[in-house]
Amino acid sequence: MNLGRMGQDTTDQKLPNGITTEVGAEELSDIPDYSGAPYVVLGDNVPDFTEEEKKTTEAFTYYGDLDDLGRCTLTFANVCPQTQPTEKRGEIGQVRPSGWHTVKYNDLIDGNYLYNRCHLIGYQLTGENANEKNLITGTRYLNVEGMLPFEDMVDAYVDETGNHVLYRVRPIFSGDDLVARGVHMEAWSVEDAGQGICFDVFCYNVQPGIVIDYVTGDSQRE
């Protein structure tokens, strides 16, 4: 299992001093198997940011380069009013993330389509839309049941307080799979030292009733 290459080129993404893109990789073997819930809390539910990072009040966004298999790697931001979008989201249909298939299961999935182009960092947080470094092949279940509640939580907190939220999302792959097994999401509200937002979770890239071949993205009914 790997997360692609960490420590990407940041020449076009200016990061504040003390912010690192060198992070440890979660082992898939350390994450419980999917058992019916869209996500699982990792450890003590406290993200693994450094003490210096936890005090950062400078806005930034970072989208790691794709790896040799064309897979997304690491996304990291300090979400605040400055990073939030000021215009409506545009089209993203031109982006084909690794493992992408257009497939429908009309009677099993709300919205019909198995896969969405899932933003690792939601558009509502940083306004980044058709960026191939920020879009993975994710199930409807991952997108709506797994990730969206956490994105909405952070978005509402920033809207209410104007504070900063460190926000890091990494897709987790097994071997050379083209489709991620899920995403590791971490967040920490800076000004109140995690009192408002603090989580460390893994969201499963599964779809109830569907069997997914993560190597290729092929699927079939269970």
Automatic annotation (TrEMBL):
InterPro entries: DNA/RNA_non-sp_Endonuclease_sf (IPR044929), Endonuclea_NS_2 (IPR044927). Pfam families: Endonuclea_NS_2. GO terms for molecular function: endonuclease activity. It comes from the Bacteria. Keywords: Endonuclease, Hydrolase, Nuclease. Residues 58-187 form the Type VII secretion system protein EssD-like domain. Coiled coil: none annotated. This is DNA/RNA non-specific endonuclease. It comes from Roseburia lenta.
